[in-house]
Amino acid sequence: MPHMHLDTARITWLHTPTLNVRSATRRIGVLLFDGFWLLGPGTVVEMFQTANELSGSRAGEEQPYEVQFLSMDGGSVASSSSARIWTDRIDARFAGGFDVLFIAGGYGAHVAARDERVLGWLRSVQSRTRAIETIGEGRLVLEAAGPTDSDGPQVNRYLSSVTGESALNASNDRNDCARSALMFIKRDLGAELARSVADRVMPGMAATWVPLPVEGGTLSVAEKIRAAARWMEANCDRPVSVADAAQVAAMSERNFLRRFKHEMQVTPSDYLLQVRLRIACNFLTETELPVDKIARRSGTGNGDRLAKIFRKRMALSPTEYRARSRVASEA
């Protein structure tokens, strides 16, 4: 598959569906529209199709994933690079929702975000879809659709770069989509198969994205804890659970929490917060990014949450920190 450019902003929208849409074969949808960036959807499909290939399903058995490109009218859809992708028309077949629905990015998303047919369909399918992931400007489409009610799913945003920087971050763009797909593959099929998929599609990245438990006896407890801490730092822009960190250290959650506190003098959650706060401080000092974008890029959610963390930990707002740090650097 050709490796082209992808914008990088992503939104992860996870919630418990009102209907059970999961079955032996999990439905993965990729919503396209004219002018979409091809790299992101291409990478996503490659990851899930590789998982199908490596899963070892025998002839006649259902594969883990059914992956479909979708569009409102179906047929051929032109990407921003003029390459065309054949899509299924969105109709009653997809009313039951998806295990994961990806929304493509690209300049065409600005038009799709004003298309009431697209927005209406997204509103109707949200409650029956377990997870919605947006790629680049695809976030505009999801934000325009909005939740269907006040109890709608929680929205977490992750940005690895901003518009205008994307030409310098093509590899990071592809990495972001690959990590997103791997998160679900690991959830469904386990860490070992997810690691095999990463090795096949993105050689050299598996150890960082899907670390397997360290082999017993080869590392000391301190080394295992520090390996887990490094993994938390590398993945701090994404949701990080104690269970995953404990798996990296090859420990039970209870033992990991106790050992981590002893070795690092802080709990895993406090350590992760410190890492994210340090990243946010660097962005505030070194860039002109708005506070909300810094919050997303540092894994702290949104500007309001970052401001609460700053006030609690540093007794000042992010804006005040930025101003003071720059005055100090100029002195």
UniProtKB/TrEMBL annotation:
<protein>
    <submittedName>
        <fullName>Transcriptional regulator, AraC family</fullName>
    </submittedName>
</protein>
<feature type="domain" description="HTH araC/xylS-type">
    <location>
        <begin position="226"/>
        <end position="324"/>
    </location>
</feature>
<dbReference type="InterPro" id="IPR018060">
    <property type="entry name" value="HTH_AraC"/>
</dbReference>
<dbReference type="InterPro" id="IPR050204">
    <property type="entry name" value="AraC_XylS_family_regulators"/>
</dbReference>
<keyword id="KW-0805">Transcription regulation</keyword>
<dbReference type="InterPro" id="IPR009057">
    <property type="entry name" value="Homeodomain-like_sf"/>
</dbReference>
<dbReference type="Pfam" id="PF12833">
    <property type="entry name" value="HTH_18"/>
</dbReference>
<dbReference type="GO" id="GO:0003700">
    <property type="term" value="F:DNA-binding transcription factor activity"/>
</dbReference>
<keyword id="KW-0238">DNA-binding</keyword>
<dbReference type="GO" id="GO:0043565">
    <property type="term" value="F:sequence-specific DNA binding"/>
</dbReference>
<keyword id="KW-0804">Transcription</keyword>
<dbReference type="InterPro" id="IPR029062">
    <property type="entry name" value="Class_I_gatase-like"/>
</dbReference>
